[in-house]
Structure formats: C-alpha cells, structure tokens
Amino acid sequence: MESQVTEKSFVQRIQQIQNEFESELNQIKSLKDLEGVRIAYAGRKGVVSSLFKQLGNIPPEERKAAGQSLNLLKQFVSQTIQSRENSLSCRNVKQKIDITLPGEPHYTGRLHPLTQVLREIKLCFQNMGFSIAQGPEVESEYYNFEALNIPKGHPARDMHDTIFVDDNLVLRTHTSPVQIRVMENQSPPVRIIAPGRCYRRDTPDASHSPFFHQVEGLCVDKNVNFADLKGVILTFARHMFGSDMKIRFRPSFFPFTEPSAEYDFSCLICRGRGCRVCKGTGWVEISGAGMVNPVVFGYVGYDPEEYTGYAFGMGIERIAMLLFEIPDIRLFFENDMRFLNQF
Amino acid sequence: MKISLNWLKSYIDFECDPNSLAHKLTMVGLEVEEIQPIEPPFSNVVVGYVISVKKHPNADKLSVCQVDIGSEKLSVVCGAPNVREGILVPVVKTGGHVGEMNVKEVKIRGVVSRGMICSERELGLSDNHKGILILDKNSQTPGKPFLEEMQKSDTVLQIDVTPNRPDCLSHIGIAREVGTIFGKSLRIPSEHVETTDIPIDSLADVTIQDQDACPRYTVRIVKDVQIAPSPDWLQSRLQSVGIRSINNVVDITNFVLMETGHPLHAFDYDYIEQHKIIVRKAKKGEKFITLDDTERILTVDDLLICDGRRPVALAGIMGGQNSEVSDTTKHILLESAYFDSMTIRKSARRLVMSTEASQRFERGADPNGTLYAINRAASLIAEFANGKVVEGTIDVYPRPIKPLSISLRSSYLKRVLGVEIPDDTVVTILNDLGLECKSIHHPITVSVPTYRPDLQNEIDLVEEVVRHYGFEHIPANTINHIQLTTNRNEAQENTELIRDIFCGLGFAEVWNNTLVSESHVKSLTPNIKPISIQNPLSPETQYLRTSGIASILDNLQWNLNRGERNLRFFEIAQTFQYDTEKCGLEKWMIVGGLTGECFPKPYWKNKSITVDFYHLKGLLGSFLSRLQIPDITFQTTNDHLFEDNSAAIYSKKKKIGIFGEFQKHLIECWSLKQQAYGFQLDFEALTEEIPKITKYKDIPKYPAVKLDLAMIVDECVSSEQMIDAIFKSGGKLVAQVDIFDVYRGKPLKENEKSVAFALTFISKDRTLREDEINPVFDKIIQNLSNKFHASLRS
Q1: How far is CA B344 from the centre of its chain?
Q2: Which of A160, A208, B28, B680 has the fewest CB atoms below 10 angstroms from its CB?
Q3: Which chain A residues contact residue B535 at CB under 8 A?
C-alpha cells in the first residue's frame, strides 16, 4: 500500500503539472510535437491518467476536493491541446481569408450626366403620354424660322445668333422646327417631346456653349389650354426636383407662341426663400412656353378654330446644372474622367 | 431700355418702391434686368445766405464767411473768388459729403471752418469750377435743403424690351403699362406750339420718291435758335438714361425720342441746299459720310434723305456730317418720319450700325406719331433754345395707315386660357393699354393704335389681357383626358439600349463638340465633303464633324494629359457630310476608344495586361451578342484609321463597323503617349439587324459530351476556317466549338501553330454514346487533315 497523500500536496502537484504542460506546449512547432505532448499528458498512460490513479491514496474526506481539481486539469489539458491543434492545422493547411484585400478591379461604365438627365425628362413626359420625335440638326431656314412665324427681316431673328451653312440652311437654333415637321406629318392629337442638339453663335463661357441641348414639347388637341400647359410644367418640375416645387409663368415673347411666357421654378438651393443663386428672388429661370400661335397652325394646315395647342422648351444643360450644381457648361463637353466619374 | 423713375413720374402718378415696381413690370412681360439707384454725389447740402465775407488772417486767397443756414450761423472758410456778401450759396454742413470728401469741422490755417461752400462741379452738376454756385434768390430760401438734391436722387430700371414692343422703348410707353398695372391714367405733355406768321411752304419742299420705304415724312422749321448747353433738368434727364448731352437742340430731339419713342432728326436749315428734302433710294456705290465721321458705301437698298444736291442723312439710322447742327446753327429743319421697318433693318444690319433711331424703326415706329413728336420737340426748342417756330408743318403722308380693328370673343379667351375672365376686367385692361373698346360685348371690339404693330389677331388680344390679368391666376390643370396612343421611337429605344450595354461593358459615355476645325475633318476623312459654316466664330469651329473618331482621340488626349492612363470611352455621335440632294446628311455612328490596361487599377492577385486587339474584339463581341446581331463575321480591312491588327465587322455580309489599333500617325498627331484602340459602328446598319422578336428554342434535355482536339496547321490557316470545317464535317451533333489554346514554338516548325479546340456534342433526342461520337470525331480530324494539311497533336 502506498503512503497517504494529503489533498494539499496533491493540488500542489496538479498546479506543478499544469505549469510544466504549458511551458512544454509553448515550445512545440508542429502537429507532430503536439501529438507527443498529448500522449505525455492526456494519453492512456499519461500524467493526468496517473494522477487519477493516485486519488485513492487521499483520505476519503479530502478526496472529493482533490478530484474536482484534477478534473479541472484534465479539462484544461484537452481544451488547450484542441485549440492549439486548430491553429496549427490552419496555418499549415488552409490560409485564413483577408476579406479586406481589394477585389478584382473592373471598369465602371458611366452614362454621361446629360444622358441621365435626358432620360429622366423623357421618362416624365412619356408617363404623361408624350412620344419622342426627332429632327435634323442641319435645318432649313423655313423650318427653323419662317414656319415658326419668324419671317426674314423679323427683329425676333436677332434673338437667335444663327450659325449659317448657306442662305437657306442653318444649324437649328432651337428644337422648335421639330414641331412643324411633326405637325406636317400627323393630324391632331399631337403629344410629343423632341430632344436634340441646337447651335448658336455664342462665344463659349461658363454659361454659354455654341452647341447645347433642348427638349421641345408640343401638344395639340381639341380643348387644350394654358391651364393644361401649367399642369404639365408643374408635374415636370415636381418629377425632376421634388414635390414641393412651385412654378411661375412670366409673360414674354416668342413669335410661334401667343400668349408666350417664360417659366421659372422655385430656387432649388433655397427652396424659394431667396439666396445668391436666385439673386434673392426665390425663383430660377428655366425656359419658354406658350400657346401655339394660330399663325403657325396656318403653316401646317391645322384649323385654329378646331384645335389649340401648347408648346414649351427647356435646356437639358440648364436642368442638369441646377440638379447637380455644376457651375460651368463647358464641363459637359470636356469629357474629363474626373468629371464623368462623379455621375 | 433705361427708364428713369423720376422721368416716368412726369407722366403718371404712382406710389411704389422700385423693387416692387420692377417685379410688377417683369410680371407683365417687361423684364427688369437691373435696378440702378442713382444717388446724388452729395449729402447734407442746404441753402445758405452769406452775411459777411472777411479776408482770412493767414492766407491771401481765402476768405472767412459768416453764413446763415436758418437754424444757425456758420463760419466757413472759402477759396472762391466770387464769394461776396448777400448771395445765396449751397453749403455742405458738417457730417455731409460732396464727391469723395466728407465735410468735418476743421481748422484751415488756424481758422475754424464748419462747412463747405460748393461749386457746380463739386456738386456734380456741371464742369463749371470757376467759382462757387450762386443760387437764384427767387427760388431758394436759406436753411432749406438744396433743391437739386431731391432731383438728383433717382432710380433707373434696365428693362429688356422684347422685339415685339417698340412702343415700350419710351417713357410714355412704359408709363402706359404702369398705368394699366395701377389703374391710373397718363398725363401726356402738351405739344402746343406758338408759331410765327411765316408759312412753312415758302421755306421748304418735301418729295418722297419711294413711298414704300418712307410712308410718311413730316417737317417743321424753327428759326433763330440759340444753340447753347441744355438746361440742367434736360441734361440730367438724358444723363440718367445714358445719353451724352450735346447741345440744347440735339438734346431736345433725343429727349423726345426717349419720351415718345419716336426718332427725330434736326438738320441745320442753312445747309439744306435749295431747302429741298428728297427721300430716295441710294445709287449703287454712292458714298456718304455719317455723323460719326465714317464714310459709308451704299447700295440700292439703302434709303437716303437728300437735299437739292446731295444726301444729308441715312434715313432712320444716322444723320450726315454735312448738315449737322453746330454751335453756329441759326435755323433748324426738324424731321419726323415713318420708315419701313424692313428697309431700315436691312441697311442697319449690312452697315453694322445700330442706333437709337434704327432700333425703333426696325421694330416699328408709330406712323401716326410723327406729328405729336415733332410738335413736342418744336415747342421745347421754342422754350429752351429761344427758337421761333414757323407756322405749319409739311406732312407728306399719301396713304395714311389706319388703326386696325380686332374683335375678341370671350369664348375664345376661355378656350385658350382655360379660365373665365369677366368681360369688364377684359375691357378695363384693354382700355388702360390704349386699345379703345368700340364694342364691349360679344365680341369685344377694339381699335388698335398704330404704336402697337404687334397686335394683329384675336390671339394677340388674348395675350394683352392675360399679361395684365396674370398667369398666376390661371390654375395648373393636372387632370387631363388624353387620347391613348403609342408611337414608339425605335431609334431612341436602340440608342438607350446601346448606351446601357457599353456602360455595362465598362465604357464611359462622352458627348462631344460637333463644331470642329479643318484639320479635324481632313485628317480622318479626306474623302468626305464636309459641311462648312458660313459665319464661324473661329477657324476652330469652321466645320461640322465628319467622324466621331477624331472626337474620341480628343477625349483620350485630354485625359492622358491629365494623368489618367486607363481609359475607355464611347459616344453615340452624329456626323455630317455634304450631300448635294439633301444638302446636309446626318449620319449617326457609335464610336469608342480604349487604352491602357485590362484592369483599370493594379491588382495584387494578377498582373494586368495591356489592352489589345482581342480584348476589344471580345468587348465588341459581347456587345453584338447582347443585341443578338445575327451571322457575325470578321474580315481584315485596310482602313486608314487602323494598323494591321484591325478588322471589319459584318452581319449577314453587310459591313456594320470597324475596329482595331489606331494608326501610329494618328497617335502621333494627337500626341498620345501610348497605343490606343478604337471602333466605329454604323448606327443604322447595326440597328437594322437587331431582331424584332426572338423566338424560343428548346433547352437541350440530354447531357452534352465534351472532347478536346489539338491540330497543328500552317500559320496561314485561320481559326475561323477551321471552326467552319469542324461544324461542316461534324454535322448536327456539334453544338459548340471553342478555342482554348494556340501554341507556337518547339517542337513545332517555324510556320506552324497548334490550335486546341473544345468541342461540345449534343443531341436533341438522346444521350450520346461514345460509339456514336467517335466516328464523327474521326471524321472531323480527317476533314481538317485533308483540307488544311493539319496533323493531330498528340
């Protein structure tokens, strides 16, 4: 019979073994080393196992406490070996993924900001039942001026600084000639918008470009009136800039509309309170509109006693500049990637 | 048009601050672009009575004056030679200012001075600085504010008058609009003239040779005028609207012009030879020196005012040097005419002369306004130049122009505007605007005064009414009954689709200038006749672009120069060429360019490679496949845009585009620092091939069998030839052929290559067995061997 062991000395022994185990574990470098440690401590003939055998030598009243300490050691040894095994096998077999490394780079395509704005405009008007029409950029003097009630020698021609190809051919100064082309080919009802490039003989600066883009709108039917025009413009303003938008019409002059108006939107920056952008007025100027002048109906053979119509225009750049707060119109056509990548 | 509010108030009474007035004018269609306050150049100036003048103890040229300004007596040091006891003078009190100078209590050579006595120049009234301004005892009272101070304070509105409103190029015209806004009536100044007994007929004679160009010519003669500087009020009126004062007579004609809008001209009567006025067209090449000392060479379209021997004025535009009013002028012949707007416009445009007169005649003066204007001017010349107005006028007006009568139906008004406006509101607005209502019911009928040439039709009256009724009173109608139609625009839809595909393939969309230089046009499309601009702003914008490729090269250049190395762009580009039948031929192209690496940024995992022919071919292949363009083949091309590594794309044997590496000379020409690739697709040719509708095909139910095959062939055999041969000999079972490797080098011979194919066999109705495929596979090998002398690579 072996000699009696006290619980106290037994627990000291457990503590000593735990220390030895930890220092041995620190020195191992491979799974193979780890296996050696496992056999030495947790194996069938290992240290822990031999300690269990010694439990019987402890006086019965102290045996329970000693057993608990020993169980804790057993648990510690097996858990530590397991976790060490996990980390060793990971390092050797599969790498841990670093999800913060950049992914494969790809070119991100961009739609030009004017395309994006034009799509929004088209969407809005198509929702309201307008179709899309187009016309040529090199336009006859007849369509660009005469049929729009701007005869030769009319002072209104001064409002357009025209680029001429020859005496009868111009680069269209507005998209309004598309109105005539559509009406010539179609009987009422007409509901179209016509987006496109226009040209004026303007020296380029922050707010002028010799070419720019407009969207023309035209609606002709029985019983179409100015209140309808206001409704369409209001709907457009709210589609584009938000439901709190307000609109304002001011009388103006265009030979092809009568009455004619300029229309304004409440300032997008200050929302109508007055700021530097709107020069304190609370309004920003958008473009022109009006009821189709019966004289124009005369050119296309519509009966002004039967039909009325409204027409409106807008500058795509103008809308885009307001929307994106772009300060210089020339940025649109420089096509600098640092600009295009922003949209 | 500059409008002085002080001036305006001489025709109409209204109480309104300048900002609100500007807003109201803008809201009736007279857009106020600028509100310019005009402050007097002095403040705190009162009338002072000089009680005593004593010599300054320490300065010879200075005096010490005791001045009574009513509330107190001031001691003021003054240096003017003309200061003396008992006169009234303008005195700036301490705390006031003149010009840049703030007046404070100061010691001048030891004597305290508590104010400043001013000259006319110091007060900004004239250039006179010989001495202090001595005021008239009858009109001024000591201690009262200096009266001029009130008059100098004004506001000038810069109004952008639309070309349809010549009447608003005048103070009376604007006053009429203001009157309509406030419901006030106008005060038109009297044009009554006191005349002498001499009848005008004995002094002058007028002949109009061209009555179309000059429907009316009115003359008055004023004798014995005293040419002198204009009175202050007249000078300041003209100054406020930006007109330089010349002398009393010329100033009066300008004043009446700004008052009524009717241009007048004053001739020196003694220089009108034979005292005859003849209105005629110029002869071809006729020369004439205008007031601005410039010789004008005329054409038969120009209208001249001539005397018995020679031209004396370019009608409606500018007078002549030879008959100009000068300091020595004694007698005046006044002209008030009505010229045809087109005639004046043509001449003014051709001669590049835009004058106050021509601007008004071009837009349309009032044919029936000549008399009022000439009489008003004559009465002012009588009053302010001491002239004696000769009895009567010569008024040649063979075909008087009568006011138009226009009716306005309430139903029409409602139909156009969408609101009902009460008849009495309509009548009030029309009457206030000077459109006298002859009938006020069903329909309202008005007489349109000839100063409103813009009012021709019923619709024009609708505009007049709504201008003053206010657009804000028309509701925005958002409920609409519309005819349901659908007009699809395929070109637009295709444009958007193509944009989306290229965007998805990583291309950035650009919008480029279409006005380009000669080199832009010639360098890429030497064989296309470009459309040339008649009046370009600069040689840089002389042509419409003939190709989109040059624009893309511009975009590459711009961005490469700014340090961006990896680029890919596309544009749906309109190009133009001259066409004798249609004049302008507009052709839409899809163009693009790319340069740099296949990855836009360095990638830690793979080394990036530079873009090449196959990279671009692959991108375009994806694009064409997405559009489902059928039967695509590629052929070599020797387009001048591209190097040898380029190709033309065909669909069903129709060429739809080209792509490849840009030629070295283009890269050099655009100073690009690296090689670049580009493409150009014909929008119309391409989109024609987009299938309208795709029909469903059964998805294979049975598994595919894949076999690989590597063949060694001569370099000159193309992969396309081999693939064609595989499909042909393989028959229906071959579903797909891919190339997974091309190898050159040992152990192959110099002119050989090995091409490795991955073949996919599928049958619609069964699972293929090995013994079915093997004979087909062998046949394929056999066929390739026979056709291309190919050998199987083991």
Answers
A1: 23
A2: A208
A3: 163-164, 201
